[in-house]
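User: Please write out a complete single-protein record containing the residue sequence and its fold in token form, without commentary.

AI:
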Amino acid sequence: INAEYMGRRTGDYDEAHVLLDLDADLRSQFHWNVKQLFVFVTARYSSPNYVVNEVVLWDFIIKSKEQARFYFQGLRSKYPLVDKGNNLRGANVTLVFQWNIMPNSG
């Protein structure tokens, strides 16, 4: 994941939209009991009030093995990174790519 920060301040909130370059190959996750994958990117950071803040920036459902190899460049986050207060500015933010397997049965 590569990211470019695009931020603004609205009232008492810090807000950022992120442009993502995302390259992934999850074809190996598909087998006989996998219906689909729920993939998502989260942003994690600390603030004075909360040790861990985690916000989903983007998500997508992969329904086939053929869709599980993808490359996105300049993909804008679906959801903004918003912090109530001024805690986002200057914070170290870690972006994490994750997925959940949704089985056919069980």
The longest strand covers residues 13-25. The mean pLDDT is 89.
